[in-house]
């Protein structure tokens, strides 16, 4: 159940939204810069791809833990103080990257950064849920997604402001985390209300929506491996830091560009079939990277297209899972999808690094091809069309914390359904996020 403060929502939106979007853009820049900087720095230092995968995957493990347990901190001290604490911890962990060269220490710091980012997302998304109304929820959700994508893409390009083996980029990243504190700390908005999530059985959900579950998990594996190890691939193929940053930024921008056309197609055609097509496309696209087809221009174009395809799988998987979900359980479904994505994102870099160790730098894209081929095969095996009455509208979904689904306009239908279904909520049927059973 979600409590929304409807007291002068327009004033809340005007006061809060700009601060939130600016903060999101700034700390997503920091996240994007930190990810590409660490991968490039370790690659330039001739660090084994497997070690790079372990260090970088620690971030996603920390995010999963933060998604489940940071809620306790927020409930205890409030949203503004929690955001300040999480951002401060992220800033400190980034600075410590520059003080220690131990890869084991970096791995711990990555996990700490991931936990802190999950807490920051938790605060931001609960705040957005508070100020959203049924009439503007879709636009607010779109603004949030745009801030995410643009911030992450800008962070890739920030690699060019300093030497990857120096201390400058560490300081810039820490500065961005510190700057994101200012808009939130100075806001005059009130704290958001408590958000509760219904209990859900993990295995029961996977049996009910196998295609959506597999799509979310495999999307996490592919995106996690790509973001973690693609910069290392670029270094080994002789790309400069400037070209690597552009390569990574274009893949993220491609994900932003293709959200709308993929969404329109998914609202007209069977989503299971569309996921099959995307899986087959991801089998073909990596060939241009493996065999170095064309020059730098074609490589950058391939990155744009590949990113558009890869980043479209997760929101499509969420929509497909909701097509198979009983009415009134949208938020629960998307929560599990987020956790599946996080598990995949933690495992993907480890497996991709093993492929790179066995096959060389192109092993990253061989791993992506094999993963996509297996997904396509299972999609064909499980292919079935959801009845039209269950077909939900496509919506790009952020892969952040279990509160993200509350921002989706379709979640409003869940709350209306719950209100009509019962007069008084049963407290035993709900629980807070930190008690979520999976």
UniProtKB/TrEMBL annotation:
Coiled coil: none annotated. The lineage of its organism: Bacteria, Pseudomonadati, Pseudomonadota, Gammaproteobacteria, Methylohalomonadales. GO terms for molecular function: transmembrane transporter activity. Residues 419-432 have a biased composition (Acidic residues). Residues 407-418 have a biased composition (Basic and acidic residues). The chain crosses the membrane at residues 20-38, 50-70, 82-100, 106-128, 140-159, 165-186, 214-235, 241-260, 272-291, 297-317, 338-358, 364-382. It comes from Methylohalomonas lacus. Keywords: Membrane, Transmembrane, Transmembrane helix. GO terms for cellular component: plasma membrane. Residues 16-389 form the Major facilitator superfamily (MFS) profile domain. It comes from the Bacteria. This is MFS family permease. It holds the Pfam family MFS_1. Residues 401-438 are annotated as: Disordered.
């Amino acid at each position: 159940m979600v409590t929304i403060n409807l007291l002068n929502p327009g004033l809340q939106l005007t006061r809060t939204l700009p601060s939130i979007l600016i903060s999101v853009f700034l700390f997503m820049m920091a996240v994007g810069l930190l990810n590409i900087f660490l991968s490039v720095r370790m690659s330039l230092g001739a660090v084994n791809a497997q070690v790079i995968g372990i260090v970088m995957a620690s971030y996603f493990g920390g995010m999963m833990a933060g998604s489940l347990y940071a809620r306790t901190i927020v409930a205890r001290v409030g949203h503004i103080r929690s955001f300040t604490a999480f951002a401060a911890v992220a800033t400190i962990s980034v600075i410590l990257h520059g003080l220690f060269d131990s890869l084991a220490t970096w791995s711990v710091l990555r996990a700490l950064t991931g936990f802190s980012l999950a807490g920051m997302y938790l605060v931001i998304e609960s705040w957005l849920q508070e100020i959203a109304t049924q009439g503007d929820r879709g636009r607010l959700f779109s603004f949030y997604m745009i801030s995410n994508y643009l911030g992450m893409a800008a962070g890739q390009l920030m690699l060019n402001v300093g030497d990857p083996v120096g201390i400058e980029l560490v300081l810039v990243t820490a500065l961005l985390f510190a700057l994101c504190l200012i808009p939130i700390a100075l806001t005059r908005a009130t704290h958001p209300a408590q958000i509760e999530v219904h209990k859900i059985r993990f295995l029961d959900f996977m049996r009910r929506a196998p295609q959506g579950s597999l799509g979310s998990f495999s999307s996490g594996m592919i995106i996690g491996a790509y973001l973690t190890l693609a910069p290392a691939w670029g270094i080994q193929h002789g790309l400069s830091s400037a070209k690597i940053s552009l390569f990574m930024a274009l893949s993220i921008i491609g994900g932003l560009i293709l959200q709308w056309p993929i969404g329109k197609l998914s609202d007209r055609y069977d989503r299971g079939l569309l996921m099959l097509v995307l899986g087959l496309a991801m089998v073909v696209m990596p060939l241009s990277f493996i065999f170095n087809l064309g020059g730098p221009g074609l490589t950058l174009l391939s990155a744009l297209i590949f990113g558009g395809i890869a980043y479209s799988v997760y929101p499509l998987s969420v929509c497909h899972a909701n097509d198979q979900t009983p009415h009134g359980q949208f938020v629960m479904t998307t929560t599990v999808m987020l956790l599946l994505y996080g598990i995949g994102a933690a495992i993907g870099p480890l497996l991709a690094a093993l492929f790179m160790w066995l096959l060389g730098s192109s092993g990253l894209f061989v791993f992506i091809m094999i993963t996509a081929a297996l997904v396509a095969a299972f999609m064909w095996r499980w292919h079935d069309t959801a009845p039209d009455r269950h077909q939900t509208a496509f919506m790009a979904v952020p892969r952040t914390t279990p509160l993200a689904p509350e921002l989706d306009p379709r979640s409003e239908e869940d709350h209306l359904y719950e209100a009509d279904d019962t007069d008084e909520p049963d407290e035993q049927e709900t629980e807070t996020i930190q008690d979520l059973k999976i």
